[in-house]
Design a protein that fits this description.
The complex is a heterodimer of chains A (231) and B (361). Helix content of chain A is 32%, strand content 31%. Chain A contains 9 helices and 12 strands. In chain A, the strands form 3 sheets. Chain A has a 5-stranded mixed β-sheet with strand order 4-1-5-12-6. In chain A, strands 9-8-10-7-11 form a 5-stranded mixed β-sheet. The radius of gyration of chain A is 20 Å and the shape is elongated. With 361 residues, chain B is an alpha+beta fold. In chain B, helix 5 packs across helix 13. A 9-stranded mixed β-sheet of chain B has the order 1-5-6-12-11-10-7-9-8, with helices on both faces. In chain B, strands 2-4-3 form a 3-stranded antiparallel β-sheet. Chain B starts with a helix and ends in a 5-residue tail after the last helix. The chains are: A alpha/beta (231), B alpha+beta (361). Chains A and B meet through helix 5, helix 6 and strand 9 of A and helix 3, helix 8, helix 9 and helix 10 of B.
Amino acid sequence: MSIKLGVPSKGRLMEKTFDWFAQHGITLGRPGSEREYAGYVEGIEGVELVLLSAGEIPRELRAGRIHLGVTGTDLIREKLGQWEQVVDEMKPLGFGRADLVLAVPQAWVDVNTLDDLDAVAAAFRANHGFRLRIATKYHRLCREFLRDNGVADYQLVDSQGATEGTVKNETAEAIADITSTGDTLRANHLKTLEDGLVLQSQATLYRARGVDLNTVSLATFEALIQRLGIN
Amino acid sequence: MTNLAAIKAEAARLRGIFEAAGATPVEPPILQPADTLLDLYGEDIRARAYVTSDALRGEQMLRPDFTVPVVQMHMEHGAEPACYTYSGEVFRRQEDDPDRASEYHQVGFELFDRNAPEVADARVFSELYKILRPLKLRAATGDIGLLTAAVSGLQTTDRRKSALMRHIWRPGRFRALVDRYSGRAPVPESRAALLQAEDLMACAAPLIGLRSKAEIEARIAALREDAAAPKLSNDDVALLDAVLSVRANSVTSLQQLRDIAVDLPSITPSIDKLSKRLDALSAAGIDVSALDFEASYGRTQMEYYDGFVFGFYAPDRPDLPPVASGGRYDALTRRLGEGREIPAVGGVIRPGLVLELGGAS
C-alpha cells in the first residue's frame, strides 16, 4: 500500500508545495487538464498524491484517509480539537505565511489594544443593546484567544468571505481574519490591534497520528522523510 | 461506565427527595432559544453548548443547564415563594477533554424566596449536603457578593469599580485592571499618545461601522478622566488581595474577614450575611468549623452566580468534575425578568457521578 500525501489542489499554496518537494528531488504534478484532481509523484516509489481543498486536509488527516498532508497551521488548529493528538507537526515549510489578526476601524483612534476592545465592547453593548460583533470564519481560535485574554461582551458572527467588508456593511464592528501584508485591511480602513495577533500561520507538513505506518509502508515513509530532510 | 437505567433510577430517587422537601417538579424543554442564552452568557456558551437550527425558529440550543428555563417559567407564571425540582439530561460540547461527558443527567433544586436569603442559601446547601453525606465529599463555598462589596469599597472612581466588577469572573483581566489602576503596569504607548494628542479625532480614514463619533469621543473623555484620577492606593490593592486570598474553614474565614473589614468597611454587610448563613447552616446540623470557605471560589465559572456559591468534590478523584454545585443568582432573574426580579438560589446534583462514587442511598 502506498503512502497518501494530501496537497492543496490549487493556487499558490499548491505551486509552492510542488516547488518545495521539487527542491528535495521529488516531483509532484498534475497531469493534463487543470480540472483533473489526480496527481503524480516522481522521484520516489510508493507515494501517492491526493489533491484536496486545503480546508479539507485537516479532516482527511483525522480520518486517516491521507497519511501526510500539507495545509496551514490556522486550519489545523481551527478544525481539529486537541490537534496535537491528531496530527504530528513534521515540518513548517516556510511559505503560505499569514497572520490571524483582530482588526477594528482605523477611525477608532481610542482602540489599540485588547484592553481597549474589551472596554469598547462593554460600552457598545450598553449603547446599542447587543454585543459587539466580530466577523470571522475562525470561530474556535478567535473565541479561545478572546477568552484567554479576558475580553467580554462580544459575539462572533460568521463570515466565510469578504470579511474585511463587513464593518462597512454594518454587519460587524470588528473582524478576525488572515492577513499577510495588511493591504486588504488598510484598503478597507481597518487596523490591527497591537496585541491582536491570534495566530501566526504557515504551510506545514503534517502526519496523521491515527495511522500506523507499519501497516502502510514504514520503509517508504523513512525514505521519504530522509529525502525531505526531516529527522 | 454506569448504565443509563441506573442513572435514571437514581435521578428519580433524588428528585423524589426534593419533592418530599416541598419542591414542585417541572420539566423544561430540551431545545432552548439560543439568543437568550447567548445574550446572557456570551460567546463562551457557544463553546459549551450544542447549537442547532431550523428555518422557522432559528438557532436553538440543547439545554446546557436547567436554571435559565426554570427562571423564565417562574417569572412568567410562578407564585411566590416557590420551590422547584427537575431531572433530566443537559448537553455540553467537549472540545478539549474527551473524558468529559457531553450528555449527562442533572437533578436540581431551586428556591425563589424574597425573605431571609441567608436562610434560603442554607436550605439549598443543606438539602444537597444531606443527600451527599454518605459519599464524604469535600464541600467548597464562597461568596461573589463579598467580592463585589470589596470592589465597591475601593477609594477610586465609579468607572474603575464597574470595570472591575464586570471582570470578577475573569481573574486575569481583573488583575490586569488592578495593575493598571494602581500604576504597577505602564500605560500603553499608543494610549499615552492619544491622551496627549491635540486633535483627538485626527484620522485620515473615514468612520465606518455602527460605532459613532460620539461614542469614540465619549470613550476618549473617559480615558482622560481616568488618566487624571489618582492611582488606586497600595493600601487598597493590599486590602483587595487580602479579601481574595481568604481561604480557611468558615469560622476562621469569618474572623479574618472581620479583621479586614476594619480597613474596608464596605464588606461588613456581606460579612453579616455570611455570619447569618453560617448560623442557618449550623441550625441545619452542619459543622461550619469543618466547612471550607474560599473567597475566590466561583470566579472561573460562568458569570451567573452573584452571591453564595458552592460545590461538592470527591477528594480522591480530582479527575471528576464537581458532583454537585450551585449558588445564588439574583442578577440572572433581573436580566430575564424584564424589570422584575426575585432572589433565587439553587443547586444541582449529577446522579451519574453519585453512582460512580458508590451511591448515596
